[in-house]
Amino acid sequence: MRTYVITGGTDGMGKGLGLHFLRRGDQVIAVASSAKKGGAFLQEAAAIGAGERAVFLRADLSTLTGMRATLARVADLADTVDGLVFGAQRFRPRREVTEDGIEFTFALHYLSRFVLGHGLVDALARADTPVIMNICGPGGFPGRLHWDDLTLREGYTGTRAAMQASRANDLLGVAFPHRHPNTRIRYVLYNPMMVRTAMADPLPAPHRILTKAAGFVFGRSVARAIPPIVQLLDEPPGDPVTAFRRRTRLPLTSKDFDPDNAIRLDTLTAELVQR
Ligand SMILES: NC(=O)c1ccc[n+]([C@@H]2O[C@H](COP(=O)([O-])OP(=O)(O)OC[C@H]3O[C@@H](n4cnc5c(N)ncnc54)[C@H](OP(=O)(O)O)[C@@H]3O)[C@@H](O)[C@H]2O)c1
């Protein structure tokens, strides 16, 4: 029996992956913020006879308190973590600042993955083939790090924040083996492209309707989106860090994966967390 920790494990691809692993006999700890979706996840787990192997861990991963509480709870629940999947997200059309003074998208999409990934290294290292699966956007829409204004005080748009978080996650993957040089943990950056999930729900009406329509024309269902992710979790590539757009492996040669920028962001983020 393997143990998977899945952020955003109560909806979309996170939930699809969680139910898949429960069906085949694994243990799943799904982390998300609302009790309603958490309850629905547990009900579905019970309906497939996996209630005893499913845990809903309620935490707001946009806050450092929620991230640290998650680490503490996971440590209570599991000695070994085989797979850590990052899928928590919530689009914010307007700029919001968390209780830690950090812009919400940067906190939830990127910082929670930094804190949980590094924080669970010991539990992952006890697994046979440990994997961190960061579902984000490598090789997708463009976007950049706003180095002088990472929390986007100037010129915020939800899309700009989401794209910045995507680029930050690219660099997070590249920086991971620099921090843990001899680790056996394989870090996979994965872009599923367009998938029909709850992602568009928080968008303003016209944008939401257009995005949902595009999803029906160009997007995939969760059921079709998760098999390549499962395969990468089961048989991770040998290299410490890899990036995929669906099944296509991306070279880590573009500026999105620049090692100097990765170290720069890693240093800035470590300072931010310590503060
Ligand atoms: N869908 C796509 O087309 C697409 C394309 C490219 C990349 N991706 C990436 O794939 C990943 C999964 O996306 P998805 O579309 O499957 O997600 P989704 O259906 O929108 O589900 C998001 C999950 O995140 C949780 N969440 C939201 N806010 C949270 C918070 N503050 N704290 C903890 N959990 C929170 C939600 O539960 P609660 O609301 O209960 O907290 C839910 O379980 C994301 O990283 C996304 O950026 C998606």
Automatic annotation (TrEMBL):
State the superkingdom. Answer: Bacteria
A Pfam family the protein falls into: adh_short
Q: What InterPro entries does the record point to?
A: NAD(P)-bd_dom_sf, SDR_fam, Sec_Metab_Biosynth_Oxidored
GO molecular function, one example? oxidoreductase activity
Q: Which keywords belong to this entry?
A: Oxidoreductase
Protein name from the UniProt record: NAD(P)-dependent dehydrogenase (Short-subunit alcohol dehydrogenase family)
